[in-house]
Amino acid sequence: MGMKAEFVRASVLDTLRLRKIFEGADGIVHLAALIDVATSVSDPYSDFSVNAAGTINVLEAARHAGVKKVAFASSAAVYGNPVRLPIDEDHPTDPLSPYGASKLAAEKYVLLYNSLYGMENTALRLFNVYGEGQSASSPYSGVITKFANAISEGRQPIIFGDGEQTRDFVHVDDVCEAFLRAVEGQGCAMPLNIASATETSVRELLELMCGICGAEFSPTYMPERQGEIARSVAGISLAKKKLGYSPRMALSQGLREILEAREGEQSIFKPKK
Predict the structure, then answer these.
(1) pTM of the model
(2) CB atoms within 10 A of CB 66
C-alpha cells in the first residue's frame, strides 16, 4: 500500500502547530530532541525545554487530536554508569547529564499518559544507533563516521584510551523496525531497550573497518576522555517479548554498507594483493 508523506518544519515548542499537524494521524514517532550531552551540561534549561517540556507538548497535542499512539525515542543515557552487564530495563537509572535526566523525565510522562489517559505509548531506550549519512559529531556513533573519514583520507584514526571501552551498536534499520512495531502495537507500560545485545570494543570496531577496506590498522592513541563509560551492552529480551523485536543487521554488514557507500565517492578499498 502506497503511503504519502508531507514534510512540515515545526517546533515541539509550538503547541498550536502540533495540534494542527497531528489531526487525523494514526500514530506519532517522537524523535525531536537536543542530543549533545556537553551542550546539556552548559545549558541545561534549553535541554529541559526541548526534551522534557517538548515531549509533554507532543503528548498533549496527540491527546487533544485524538491520536492514541506515541513511540518515543528515549536513550541509554538514562542508565548512567552501568553497575551490571548486560543492562536490562530493571537496571538503576542514574543519568550523568541533564540530557540523560531530560530523557528519563520525558519517558516517565510518555508512559504516564498510558495509565492516565488511555493512550498506547511506547518508550524505546536506544543504544548506539549507527547508519549511513550519520554526522561525525553524533554523541552515540560518531566514532564510526570519524573512523570512516580517517580511513578514506588515508589518516591514522584516533583511539582515546586503550580502545577497550565497549558499546552496543545497533543499525538504524533495526531501530526503524522497532518504531514501526511500537506504533502498530498496543503500547507498553515499561520502557524497552533497543540495541543489538552485542558488546563491541572501539578497538574491535576499527579492526573490523580496516579489515573490510583492506586498510592497515595503525591508530593514534590519545589519553582517555574523562567521564567516559567503560563498558556498555544491553539486554533486549523485554523488547523481543513485548514487540517481537529482533535485530537482523550484523555490525560487519552494517559497516560494509557504510564503507561501500563511500566507495562511490572515493576509493577507500585497497586492492587485494
Answers:
(1) 0.94
(2) 10
